[in-house]
TrEMBL record:
Protein's name according to its UniProt entry: Putative tRNA (cytidine(32)/guanosine(34)-2'-O)-methyltransferase
Protein origin, superkingdom: Eukaryota
Role description: Methylates the 2'-O-ribose of nucleotides at positions 32 and 34 of the tRNA anticodon loop of substrate tRNAs.
HAMAP family: RNA_methyltr_E, RNA_methyltr_E_TRM7
Family to which the UniProt record says this protein belongs: Belongs to the class I-like SAM-binding methyltransferase superfamily. RNA methyltransferase RlmE family. TRM7 subfamily.
Protein source organism: Sporothrix epigloea
Alphabetical list of Gene3D superfamilies matching this protein: Vaccinia Virus protein VP39 (3.40.50.150)
Keywords associated with the record: Cytoplasm, Methyltransferase, S-adenosyl-L-methionine, Transferase, tRNA processing
Lineage start: Eukaryota, Fungi, Dikarya, Ascomycota, Pezizomycotina
Gene field: TRM7
Length: 388
């Protein structure tokens, strides 16, 4: 998160720098917690795709330092800021110049709250990119789509963990798995959606391997075609599955978060690293059967076979009890979260003339573009070395 004109356009971007968050995504997690009380009673948390680390910062500040950004503190802070904006809320881009002013002199009250965690807290953050150190967080540089990451993670949570001798219960110590994974966007819509869904399946598979019964899973999704099948699959594992859109996530973006509460896998289900969700087996349906929507969806969906059978049974039952097969998908409830009086992430705010843009909290340590910049510099700049 750099120093740019986004300061003007995006209240959360600017606010994140003022409050010391490494990315504006911190507000998404705070608003999800506000709605779903994600952190109460948890002591083992895994933050997947965590760089630059704003979600881990939230975890560290809430679970280790016991600061609260919950309903009261957060709302107070929001209203304080709004009052400073000359009493007007955000303006849509087209109206920006007539819009309200927003001061840069904000207070950032933090309240030290009662301990919401359960005993000794352990948090592991994983990303392909390095994550600068954070108090109380173990950071791992690893690929969440690789099976070797799960034992690495379990070892980070418990140094005595031994993959060879681990019992099933001992290897399911995690209360909450978060995933804010996003691939580098190519601009090719279908490809981006595909890579995003692979990341989501990787996160889910990892969660299935490490979550305790009763655990929670929260992951970023891109709302697209066939997302209902994913919801139906998740509903097999969790008592409550909700699609949530925090106010700090732009309404114009297809991004949302799937919040899965109370992990209750089917009795016969065994999470498998060898045959992870999203890779390998399809439902194994005969091609003739795949003509109908439900079977077609399932046959085209690379889901692990034990789960596939249960999902399919569920979907078939629903289909057969209705006249139209295509209505058989389970629709997850949708919740918009974050106080409605909070900043609108699609609005632009006019800043005072003396507004000073703040430096980034944590510049990227190894951004993907670093090598390109080095190569360009070595070649003598954007236009190369010129000889006359
Ligand atoms: N939640 C983070 C925060 O609050 O700072 C922001 C996450 S950012 C939107 C998405 C991250 O996903 C990137 O840092 C990227 O490196 C990571 N990522 C993408 N593919 C990954 C993979 N296969 N394994 C691990 N991390 C991955």
């Amino acid at each position: 998160m750099g120093k740019s004109s986004k300061d003007k356009r995006d209240a959360y971007y600017r606010l994140a720098k003022e409050q010391g968050w490494r990315a504006r995504s911190a507000f998404k997690l705070l608003q999800l917690d506000e709605e779903f009380d994600l952190f109460t009673g948890v002591s083992r948390v895994v933050d997947l795709c965590a760089a630059p680390g704003s979600w881990s910062q939230v975890l560290s500040r809430v679970l280790i330092k016991h600061e609260t950004f919950g309903r009261t503190a957060w709302q107070n802070q929001e209203s304080l800021l709004r009052q400073q904006m000359l009493g007007v809320t955000g303006q849509r881009d087209s109206q920006v110049d007539a819009g309200a002013e927003m001061t840069s002199k904000t207070e950032t009250p933090t309240i030290v709250a009662a301990d919401r965690s359960k005993g000794d807290v352990k948090i592991v953050a994983i990303d392909l990119q390095p994550i600068s150190p954070l108090p109380g967080i173990v950071t791992l540089r690893a690929d969440i789509t690789h099976p070797a990451t799960v034992p690495l993670l379990l070892k980070a949570l418990d140094p005595d963990y031994d993959a060879a001798t681990a019992s099933k219960s001992a290897s399911n110590p995690v209360d909450l798995v978060l995933s804010d994974g996003a691939p580098d966007v190519t601009g090719l819509h279908d490809l981006d959606m595909y890579v995003q869904s692979q990341l989501l399946f990787a996160a889910l598979n990892l969660a299935l391997c490490v979550l305790k019964p009763g655990g929670k899973f929260v992951a970023k999704i891109f709302r697209g075609r066939n997302v209902d099948l994913l919801f139906a699959q998740l509903k097999l594992f969790f008592t409550r599955v909700v699609v949530a859109k925090p106010r700090s996530s732009r309404a114009s973006s297809v991004e949302a978060f799937i919040v899965c509460l109370d992990f209750r896998p089917p009795a016969a289900f065994q999470a498998s690293l060898e045959r992870p969700l999203g890779v390998g087996d399809t439902a194994g349906l005969a091609p003739a059967k795949a003509a109908v929507d439900v079977d077609g969806l399932a046959a085209g969906s690379p889901i692990v076979s034990e789960v596939a059978e249960v999902v399919l049974e569920d979907l078939r039952e629903a289909r057969d009890s209705r006249s139209t097969p295509t209505t058989s998908r389970w629709i997850a409830p949708f919740v918009a979260c974050g106080d409605l009086s909070a900043f609108d992430s699609d609005a632009s705010y006019k800043l005072p003339d003396d507004y000073v843009s703040l430096d980034p909290i944590q510049p990227p340590t190894a951004p993907p573009y670093k090598r390109a910049l080095e190569m360009r510099k070595a070649a003598g700049g954007a236009y190369g070395k010129t000889t006359v």
